[in-house]
Write a structure and sequence with these properties.
The protein is of the alpha/beta class and 187 residues long. Helices cover 36% and strands 21% of the residues. It has a single domain, classed as Formyl transferase, N-terminal domain (Rossmann fold), CATH 3.40.50. Strands 3-4-5-6 form a 4-stranded mixed sheet, covered by helices on one side. It has a two-stranded parallel ribbon with strand order 1-2.
Length: 187
């Protein structure tokens, strides 16, 4: 989130970070956003007792009231319902710590190490109903080094996430990329 905010402060950046919305009242990003002067909101998923769509409808209302046009997920570890994904189709992106389509879901660094791959990395993709399956906007690769463990590999991948996520958001906000009929279109 901080990388997105810092990049958006550049005068030529096409996106404005207008709201940081969290499903956790104790999320550290909320205080950091306030420190940047960004509006924050909380929709605590626990209040909805497992009714995912009701939770997402409440989030959608907060986003609508705040006139949000694009969503850049950052540390939002919840799987969205098809209703919410369709509502924000082509306007919601996510960063994932693997070279998609490899290693979907969680524990991606462990998966990469167990698979013995020579390269790992991160991907920014459009969110679609299927988990981590949307068209990829940007990727960055890092080598898997001898002696790597999950922590060392994760640090190198995270450094690249901070580079490519702001770039991908800029591409989407400027209209240079779009999701059209489920496919990535570069303009």
């Amino acid at each position: 989130m901080v990388s997105l905010v810092e990049a958006a402060q550049a005068p030529d950046h096409p996106a404005e970070i207008a709201l940081v919305l969290s499903n956790r009242p104790d999320a550290g990003g909320l205080e950091r956003a306030r420190g940047f002067g960004i509006a924050t909101a909380i929709v605590d998923h626990r209040a909805f007792q497992g009714d995912r769509e009701a939770f997402e409808r409440a989030m959608d209302e907060v986003l609508r009231v705040n006139q949000i046009e694009l969503i850049a997920l950052a540390g939002f570890m919840r799987i969205m319902t098809p209703w919410f994904v369709r509502r924000w189709e082509g306007r919601m992106i996510n960063i994932h710590p693997s070279l998609l389509p490899l290693f979907k879901g969680t524990h991606t660094h462990r998966q990469a190490l167990e698979a013995g791959v020579a390269e790992h990395g991160c991907s920014v993709h459009f969110v679609v109903p299927e988990l981590d399956a949307g068209p990829v906007i940007a990727q960055a690769r890092v080598p898997v080094l001898p002696g790597d463990d999950e922590e060392t590999l994760a640090r190198r991948v995270l450094a690249q996430e901070h580079v490519i996520y702001p770039q991908a958001l800029a591409q989407l906000a400027s209209g240079r990329v779009a999701l059209v009929d489920g496919a990535l279109v570069a303009r």
